[in-house]
TrEMBL record:
Domain Myb/SANT-like DNA-binding: 9-59
InterPro entries in the record: Myb_DNA-bind_5 (IPR028002)
Protein name, as recorded: Myb/SANT-like DNA-binding domain-containing protein
Pfam families reported in the protein's UniProt record: Myb_DNA-bind_5 (PF13873)
Length: 72
């Protein structure tokens, strides 16, 4: 049998993406740490994660857009 070459995985997150994600989470730290009741706390955390996801996606999309504009 011939040796199969495996592709080396690339990073999923850049250093700037990791740093930005951590800042977004730290900004909402109080909501994640404080108990606010079962239903109300669950809803606030869900909304908080959705906002973090939107902000992080906007950051990543802006980085991609900036790279494309720089190349052109």
């Amino acid at each position: 049998m011939a040796k199969e070459k495996t592709k080396k995985r690339c990073q999923n997150w850049s250093k700037s993406e990791k740093a930005f994600a951590l800042e977004l989470i730290k900004f909402q730290e109080e909501i994640f740490e404080r108990f606010q009741g079962a239903n109300q706390g669950k809803l606030k955390k869900k909304l908080c994660w959705e906002k973090i996801a939107l902000d992080l996606n906007a950051f990543v999309n802006f980085q991609i857009f900036a790279k494309v504009m720089y190349i052109v």
